[in-house]
Design goal:
alpha/beta, eight-stranded mixed β-sheet, 22 helices, GTP binding, nucleotide-binding
């Protein structure tokens, strides 16, 4: 935001100390603070002609510029008064009041020429103040304008002559306003009323003469210079403000104490300057602000003091160098500020930094372009780009350093407990290397999971791990020495795990394939399920039949034992039967014995045989029941099992033989019972 400067009163800008012009540093400091465009109005004229009074009227304050009330020149050098422009918002009005020209006390008019030249060089509106009408005397007193070609250069080229150089004055010189004080004549030409401007134009007409040509040219030189140097001209005429000695009291008099026409004419003068005075401009349509006006003052004064001629081109070039250098620094400072504000170092990626750089660079370039002008051969633009690149490199290095610091601190924090375990020798054992590597992987994952590590994350990690290579190699060497076989086993295990993982993957792929096939063959799912249940049922029945077969084998074995016992019993019965036959034969042979004795014995024998037969019958019944159960079980056996069961068939045959014998014995016993006397 532009700063408005309110000076309480005027201040000397350029001091005139014994003919030596010196810029006042305090006044230059005030100009440095004015960032608004400036409208500069300077006034020049003979001493004691009321210049300061008009400046005070423009300032709207009394007292202001010192008026003085004697014949002695009161203003020395060039005085300055700055305040906000009364009509143009955002602009500052700078009034320059100069010391009077033609002061007899100075003796040398060289100083007056420089004051006149500086007033023209520094202003955008140049007011020339004189007394009375425009006559030859007044024209002669304006001889300073004819000496401008000897005092000012527009270009620095040594090959350019004065005529060509002066032709360019019109591009840089201010508007010209001639103020005629104590003007008592009537504004008429050939009996017709005319304006003050028409009066000025008529007075500046070149004189036509029949005398010496050089003399006429010399007389017309001021008019020629005014026409040539100042294309825009304005004239004001003022009545005498007061009469008599009151002129010396102008500073204390109020408007009602002055001539009304004079008051009106001064008001018209001030209104014109407020509305028509332009901003001070440099070549290239560059508006002048306070710092630029300060640069012009310093450049022109230093040039005059050095004995050289003030050069407009050099002054603008010096100003451009100063401002362009300042523009470079301002733009670089803005870039630096924006980068520091927007960047959070370290950035996660390089692109993040470059995005902020591009945005800040764009703003910095805009600031440089707005504050620079006349950058010949783009010297300062090149300097700006170079410094910008340097700044970018600095931020890249800062970002890398911040990333390195952050990552290193993070690694130390994560790995410190691990390193303590290494120092304690936890990993110097068989299998320690595997544990060491596994733990390192876990810590690396923890490191990777941490945010905002920046662009050096991987490089710092690798360097950190490389710094641990000696420890890693030592642990590996010890592990190899202690666990050569275990390591080989580990390799095999890993291969097996890999193979298992491969098989698992294949199995999973197979399952997926089967699922796809099952999805396509939904209609067969139920059949497959039933078939599976049937197979399981058959397998269960086979297992049950196998168990039953084993039980039958055991029962057959037991039956064989019973049959063996039965055979023994039968053999005993046969032996007894044989004995009975023998006894019967003996009985037949022993006729001498009593029949009763024989019957009794025979009855006992028969009873005993019958008892034996009952026992055999019971055993037979039991055997038949067992055989019946076996037959039921054998029916359910497969054909193969039936063929293999030949022992059962033999047992069956033996049972049949025993049954036949029992039948035979029963028949014999029955016969004995029916014929008890047959023995006798």
């Amino acid at each position: 935001m532009a700063i408005e400067v309110h000076m309480p009163g005027p201040m000397c800008l350029i001091e005139n100390m014994k003919g030596q012009l010196i810029a006042n540093q305090e006044a230059l400091g005030i100009l440095e603070d004015i960032t608004q465009p400036v409208v500069v109005v300077s006034i020049v004229g003979l001493y004691r002609t009321g210049k300061s009074y008009l400046m005070n009227k423009l300032a709207g304050k009394q007292p202001g510029f010192s008026l003085g009330s004697t014949v002695q020149s009161h203003t020395k050098g060039i005085w300055m008064w700055c305040f906000p422009h009364p009509q143009k918002t955002g602009h500052t009005l700078v009034l320059l009041d100069t010391e009077g020209l033609g002061d007899v006390e100075k003796g040398d008019n060289q100083n007056d020429c420089w004051i006149f030249a500086l007033a023209i060089l520094l202003s955008s509106t140049f007011v020339y103040n004189s007394m009375g009408p425009i006559n030859q005397l007044a024209i002669d007193q304006l001889h300073y304008v004819t000496e401008l070609t000897d005092r000012i250069r527009s270009r620095s080229s040594p090959d350019q002559d004065e005529v060509e150089d002066s032709d360019e004055f019109v591009r840089f010189f201010p508007d010209f306003v001639w103020v005629l004080r104590d003007f008592s004549l009537e504004l008429k030409l050939n009996g017709e009323p005319i304006s003050a401007d028409e009066y000025l134009e008529n007075s500046l007409k070149l004189k036509q003469g029949t005398g010496q040509r050089d003399k006429v040219k010399e007389l017309n030189l001021p008019q020629l210079c005014i026409h040539k140097f100042f294309p825009k001209k304005k004239c004001f005429v003022f009545e005498r403000p007061v009469h008599g000695r009151k002129v010396g009291q102008m500073e204390s008099l109020q408007d009602q104490d002055l001539d009304s026409d004079f008051v009106e004419q001064v008001a018209e003068f001030c209104s014109y300057l407020f509305s028509s005075s332009k901003v001070k401009m440099l070549s290239g349509c560059i508006k002048v602000n306070g710092p630029r006006l300060k640069s012009l003052v310093v450049t022109y004064v230093n040039t005059i003091c050095s004995g050289s001629l003030p050069c407009i081109e050099n002054a603008v070039l010096a100003l451009s160098q100063t401002e362009n250098a300042a523009a470079v620094q301002k733009a670089i400072a803005h870039y630096d500020q924006q980068m520091n504000q927007k960047l959070q170092l370290p950035t996660e990626t390089l692109q993040e930094l470059l995005n902020v750089h591009r945005a800040s660079e764009k703003e910095a370039i805009k600031i440089f372009m707005e504050n620079s002008f006349k950058d010949v051969n783009q010297v300062f633009l090149t300097q700006f780009v170079t410094e910008l690149e340097t700044k970018q490199e600095e931020f890249l290095k800062k970002n890398e350093q911040a990333s390195s610091d952050r990552c290193l601190a993070l690694l130390q924090d994560i790995f410190n407990p691990f390193e303590e375990d290494v120092k304690q020798g936890i990993y110097y054992k068989p299998g320690g290397y595997h544990l060491y590597v596994q733990k390192t992987r876990e810590l690396k994952k923890k490191y990777y999971d941490e945010p905002r590590k920046g662009v050096q994350a991987e490089e710092v990690l690798q360097k950190f791990l490389q710094s641990k290579d000696d420890v890693t190699d030592a642990i590996l060497q010890i592990d190899q020495e202690l666990r050569v076989k275990e390591k080989e086993s580990e390799v095999e295990r890993m291969k097996a795990e890999a193979a298992q993982a491969t098989a698992k993957i294949q199995e999973e792929m197979q399952q997926k394939t089967e699922q796809l096939l099952q999805e396509k063959e939904k209609s067969h799912e139920e059949h497959s399920k039933q078939l599976t249940e049937m197979m399981e049922k058959v397998q269960a029945q086979m297992r049950e039949m196998q168990q039953r077969n084993e039980q039958l084998q055991q029962q057959i074995k037991n039956q064989e034992e019973h049959m063996k016992q039965f055979t023994e019993v039968m053999e005993k019965a046969q032996a007894q039967n044989k004995n009975m036959q023998q006894l019967a034969e003996q009985l037949l042979q022993q006729k001498g014995k009593s029949d009763e004795d024989h019957r009794k014995k025979l009855t006992e024998k028969v009873d005993e045989a019958q008892a034996k037969l009952r026992e055999l019958q019971e055993e037979k019944d039991l055997l038949q029941n067992q055989i019946k159960c076996l037959e039921e079980q054998i029916k359910h056996l497969p054909e193969e099992k039936k063929k293999e069961n030949h022992e059962y068939n033999q047992l069956r045959k033996k049972c049949e033989d025993v049954e036949k014998k029992i039948i035979k014995i029963n028949e014999e016993l029955s016969h004995l019972q029916k014929n008890p006397c047959v023995i006798s």
